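Tutorial handout. Part one gives the primary structure; part two gives the three-dimensional structure as tokens.
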Amino acid sequence: MADTTPDPLLRLRQSIAANDPPIATLSSDPTAPGEPTENLATATHLQFDNPQHSYSLDSPTRFISSDKPVDLRSIWFAWQKKDVAIPDYIASAQQLNEELAATNSSSKIQNLVFVERLDLITWLEGASEESEYIKGLETDAAQRSAQVASGAVGGVSTIPSSTAGARTGKTIDPRLQEIYNGERRMGDHNTVLRGIKPTVPPPHFPAQSLKEFHC
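Part two.
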């Protein structure tokens, strides 16, 4: 029988897009009054609304690092620390691991290297539709395309025709948009080297006038 449990990574991304992020709780029951906590050392589940669902923070996800799935606790921790510098992220992870060990928990925060953390955050916030670290993302992209086509969900941003020419309607990473903007400001290469050719034709003098001039 197929597993119908919603994927935790997709649920997290959808909740972030809806500005309705989950909360860490001490309860596994999504319908019961939650016991929210900001302490990931004692929290046991991540609870979502609309629809209600609760995931164990120890659940493995499809995000792969060092050839093994990263647990949901590490994913949620990386998102919470998305705006901090790498040294602060590492120090916070080490402190949380010490707190987890003090509770006799076998859980441990898995540190993500810079490119993994950037890839995860970019994908979760919706700035990228692709991730080389998420297993099975191709299927998710196909499902989303079908939802957009049916009107079930909104589409992603496109490049306006005035800025992208033939690329109209194609999705683009906002980081690449900045590169395209910079390229457009550079102008045409031949124009820079040779200048703009005059568009006004040279004056025309009648033949008779030329003879009088030479006389």
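Part three, for discussion. The radius of gyration is 28 Å. The chain is about 45% helix and 10% strand.
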